Amino acid sequence: MLIDPADAPLEKITDRLYIKRDDLLDPLIGGNKFRKLKYNILHAKDQKKNTLLTFGGAYSNHILATAKAGALENMNTIGIIRGAAEHGLSPVLTKAQALGMSLQFISREDYKLRHNADYLTALQNAHPNAHIIPEGGTNALALCGVSEIRTELPDDIDFIATACGSGGTLAGLITAYADREDIEICGFSILKGEDQLTSTVTALLKTNGITPRCTWHINTAHHFGGYAKAPSELVEYIKSFKEQHGIDLDYVYTGKMMHGITNLLQNRTDIQKAVAIHTGGLYTAHIRHLETA
Fold first, then answer.
1. What structural domains and CATH numbers belong to the chain?
2. Are the C-beta atoms of residues 255 and 231 closer than 8 Å to each other?
3. Residue spans of alpha helices (H) in 104-226
4. Residues 231, 288, 28: CA angle, nearest 5 degrees
5. pTM for the whole thing?
6. Which of 80, 89, 143, 200 makes the best surface tag, with the fewest CB within 10 Å?
């Protein structure tokens, strides 16, 4: 792909905390999106598929990243979009369409079938030249892409933090460090409610034959009310972080993760060198903020 991970430096925040700037890879396909899509695109080309088909909502980072990746790689893209379009396209979908993505809207009820085997078979038959990528981009190929981040990080780290929505990035990091008993990996959930991500990540690892020796877990204490919720405490933290370090965070994913790891390190003196993964997503979060402000 036309993106070089060397463009994502490791920057020091404190003596014990560093941030991997995957957000600098590309405004639309940076962060974990590039890593998840890399091997999906290579696989599609290997299978002589000229189209990427995937799923998402009106403000999906993944939909926009897939559209941009398709444009870069001269591939067609199709987005199966949750909900009707009678209220017009969101700015995110408008941008995806401008990048060449064909948008197909389905009802929220039909969208629930996106993991159904019969539905996916019918979709594949309707689009024989398409490589189908799950919502959020999380599959076995995504884990391969995310796991490559190990080659870009120093060996002396003992803790890695990432925001966690679908579980793919966390599973990829666990895959990367599966042989390291001396490292801990934490996914900060951005979802409110009972932790379902642990079982999701466990299933992903099992499907891919990964039996990790590293320690990993989900932290559910920093969701700030759930997906895309931005209470004043989080908004102020993101503003303060920008002022101190010159780094933008979003309130959907990375703001919650950085708030979480910062607080965790205050109580975990055993952690010597932690790395937080900046997974990008700034474009769509900014658009959503402008529309709800």
1. 5-27+140-292 (3.40.50.1100), 34-137 (3.40.50.1100)
2. no
3. 108-111, 117-126, 140-147, 168-176, 197-207
4. 120
5. 0.91
6. 89
